[in-house]
Amino acid sequence: MHRVRGLLVVLFSFAAALASGQAGGDLQAQILYAYQTEDFNQLNNLVLNLTNQVKAGGADAALRYHLAHAQYRFGLLAEAKRPRDAAPAYDGCIDQLKQILEQDVKSVESLALQSACYAHLARHKRLEAVLLRSRAEDRLGAAYALAPRNPRVLYLTALEGLDRSKPGSAENKRAFEQLQLAAQLFDQSSATRDEVPGWGHAEAYLALGAQLQARGDSLGARNWIEKSLIVAPDYKSAQRQMAGLVRR
Asked: Which residues contact 144 (CB under 8 A, 6 or more apart)?
């Protein structure tokens, strides 16, 4: 009888973990799809729904991370469509991740995502830009020290390096190599797994394709942009990049 009860407990725990992972994967997929299709309203609804769940007392680390991720994506879209809403979204992302990092200062994924939100926020708050960029660098540096082969950490590190370096410089070359490695590591992992976070595949492939295109490697660019569209067929930025490549 005790063995049966023990087996039932194990099976129940496994089913609960599986359901939780599936739910997380579905939620992540919704966030990514809304961002990649540039569905501002759907992404806004996701942010509002997740915010309400957190306020209702469901604020575990996973839920807070999803909310922060949704706010980050909202901020990225807002920069083009509603610039005044971008900064509050990045602020919200940072605040949610602070709650996670207070409990786990070595949360690599939280450090990496928070660094991205700090970096983007710096573009909107000029008076605080130096401090915000410093925090972005600190968070990303900490994440890299903990997990130098985490593809999201490498991807964000590469973007930051490419953004601040001059073409042809040693720093630019190093950042490009990091982006290549990030894309390769993403390529070795599933883009449809239930475990979260697992975002970044399509964005890294597209970023590498764009860098190769800028360097005159049209064949390599097409290869990686196609990979981005295989992972995310409705990814509008990748569609536009491919269309521009085809017209050349």
From this structure: 153, 154, 157
Domains of the chain: 23-147 (1.25.40), 149-248 (1.25.40.10)
Q: CA-CA-CA-CA torsion for 222, 153, 24, 82, nearest 10 degrees?
A: -70
DSSP state of 168: T
* 194 closest CA partner among 69, 15, 28, 10: 28
Structure tokens at 79: 């920069």
Residue 127 is classified by DSSP as G
| End-to-end CA, the chain | 72
pLDDT in tens, 144-158: 999 999 999 999 999
Q: What is the pLDDT of residues 211-243, one digit of tens each?
A: 999 999 999 999 999 999 999 999 999 999 999
* Element holding 246 (H helix, E strand): helix 236-247
Answer yes or no: pTM beyond 0.85. Answer: yes
CB atoms within 10 A of CB 188: 8
CA distance 74 to 38: 9
Look at residue 56 and give its three-state secondary structure.
coil
